[in-house]
Amino acid sequence: MPIDYQQIHAKIKEIGADASERRKTIEERRGRARDLLQSYASELDFLRSKVDSAKTVDANIRCALPVSEPLVSSRPPAASVKDATLIAADGSQINLDRHATVQFCLINVGAIIMKLNSGEVPEISVSSELLYGDDIETNAGLITDDRVALRRDLKERAKLDELSKTAKSPVLTLIDGPIELWGAKGEDEKIYNDFIRSYLKILSRLQARGVVTAGYVDKPAADLVVRLLEIVSANNEQMKKLREFHPLRGVSDRWLFGERESPLLPPGHRSAVFGIQSGSEKNYTGVLSLHFFYLNVGTDGHPWPVRVEIPKWVADDQEKLNLLHAILVEQCRVMGSKPYPYLLHRAHETAVVKHEEKQQIEQMLAQELRSQNEEVDEGSYKQSAKDLQGRTSYKP
C-alpha cells in the first residue's frame, strides 16, 4: 500500500504547531552557550580541570579539550600555497548480500595525487580487494558490515602511506571523515585492536616523514565544544550524572562557530585547535594524539563550518598547520557554492562502486565457481520478486 499521507500530514501540522516553542527554547540555549563560550574563553586551565573531573565520573566522556588558544580564536588562512603534493583517498565497499547467488565483499579505494602549480595532470590510483571464503568467515559467523568498513578505512590510510613515500615534500594527505579509526567493539574487540595497531604504525610512519595528514568532516554532528561548555557549567551534583546532563541540547558546534548573522569564524578562518577527549585516547598517545579545529569554508551570509581532525604532530607545528589551513580553503573554493575539497571529491568519484558493477562481479564470480564444479546457490526468491518489472519500492 502507498504511504498514508493523511497520517503524515497530521503529524507535520503537529510539528508545525510546536515550532514557536521549540524556537524559543533553542534560542535561550544558544544564548547560554555563547555566554559560556565568552566567559570561559581564556580559562583554559580551569576548563581542563573540569574535563579531568568529568573523566573520573565517565572515562569515556567525549568532548573538546582546550590546548593553548582561547575558545573564541579566529585565525585567517596564510598566503596561497605555491608548492606541495596533495594526496586524497576515499573508499567504498560492497557488503554481504544474503539475497545474492554468491556471498562476497569488495573494498575499493581510490586515490588522487596532485602536485600544486606543476602543470601536471593529477595521478589516479585504485586498489580493489575481493573478499570470499575464509575472508568473510569469522568466529562469530559471517563478516559484519562494520568489520568491512573498518577494513576499508584502514586500506584508505595504508594507500596514503604508500603513495606519500615517494611524493615531493611538502606532502599533505587527506581522508573524508574522522582521522580516528572507528570499528566494532564487543566480540570484535581483539580484531579491532589489531586494526588499531596497524593504523598506529601507519600514523607513525607518516609522522616520521613529516607528512601533514588530516580528516575532513563535512557537516559534523559531534558537538564536542558544546559538550565542553555543558561540563564546565555542571555543579558537583550534576557532574555525578553527566550522561543525563544536557542543558544545551539542540545547540550545535556548527551553529556556535557558524551562526548565520554573525559567525564566530569569518569565511576562510579557523578556530582554536582542540584536543579530543574520548575513551580512545589510550590508543592515540604522544605525537599521535587526536586534535581538531573548525574551519569556515563558506562565504559571507552563508557560513559552512567543517571539522578538520589532525594528529598532535600537525597541531604542534605552525608551518604544517598553516599549510593545511590554506590548502583546504583553496581546495574548497574550487567547488564553488557547495564547498568541499576538490581532491576528495575526485577520490570519491574514483572509489565509488556502481550497482551494475556489483552485479557484474557477482556474475563473474558465480561463473568461475560453476566452471570449477563448485556449488553455487540461487538468489533469494524475495529478491526476484523485488526485481520484477514495475516493482520500485524499497524495503531491505
Summarize the entry for a quick read.
The protein is α+β, with helices and mostly antiparallel strands and 396 residues long. It folds into two domains: 40-76 and 218-319 and 326-341, no CATH class; 85-214 and 349-375, Nucleotidyltransferase, domain 5.
Describe this structure as you would to a colleague.
With 396 residues, the protein is of the alpha+beta class. It folds into 2 domains: 40-76 and 218-319 and 326-341, no CATH class; 85-214 and 349-375, Nucleotidyltransferase, domain 5 (2-Layer Sandwich), CATH 3.30.420. Helix content is 41%, strand content 17%. The chain contains 13 helices and 11 strands. The protein has helices at 5-17, 19-39, 44-57, 145-164, 189-208, 224-233, 236-239, 253-258, 312-315, 318-334, 342-351, 355-371, 381-386, and strands spanning 63-66, 85-94, 105-115, 123-131, 137-138, 141-142, 171-176, 212-217, 274-277, 290-296, 305-311. The strands form 2 sheets. It has a 9-stranded mixed β-sheet with strand order 1-9-10-11-8-7-2-3-4, sandwiched between helices. Strands 5-6 form a two-stranded antiparallel ribbon. Strand 10 (290-296) and strand 11 form a beta hairpin. Helix 4 packs parallel to helix 5. The longest helix is centred in the N-terminal third of the chain and has 21 residues, at 19-39. The two termini are 16 Å apart.
